[in-house]
Amino acid sequence: MKWNGRTIGGIALALLGVCSVFVWGALWALISYALAFALLFFGYRFWREADNTFKQICSGLGMFAGLLLLIYWLPKFIALLISVAMILGGWWLYRTGQGSSYSYRVK
């Protein structure tokens, strides 16, 4: 392993991204978004197959709950995207720092 600025910076950025997933609550946003999309999917599916008004109202309420979850967890979802970008950026820095052509020497 080559220890240079890019390698150390990449490791630090990736670790900061992993920590931010837990600190910013982005992991809960991922779970909530999965639940919200499931509510929207099954609500729409049951809406199309409903044969009476009660079933349409219940599936409409399910879709409304899914939409509210999407809106409520939007800032945490943005935090999740930032965390993923930090992890990928750290990995890119680490990999370019380990490349054989990268060096600090002035020739």
Q: How would you characterize the overall build of this protein?
A:
This protein has helices spanning 5-23, 26-49, 53-72, 74-98. The longest helix is centred in the last third of the chain and has 25 residues, at 74-98. With 107 residues, it is mostly helical.
Task: Provide a concise account of the structure shown.
With 107 residues, the protein is mainly alpha-helical. It is built from four helices and no strands. It is rod-shaped and about 70 Å long.
Features:
mainly alpha; 107 residues
- In whole angstroms, how far apart are the ends? 23 Å
Strand content: under 5%
Low confidence ranges? none
| Strand elements, count | 0
SSE pattern: HHHH
Helix content: over 70%
If you average the pLDDT, what whole number results? 87
Computed CA radius of gyration, to the nearest angstrom = 22 Å
Structural class by SSE content: mainly alpha
Note the main sheet. Answer: none
Number of helices: 4
General form: rod-shaped
List the topology elements:
Elements: H1 5-23, H2 26-49, H3 53-72, H4 74-98
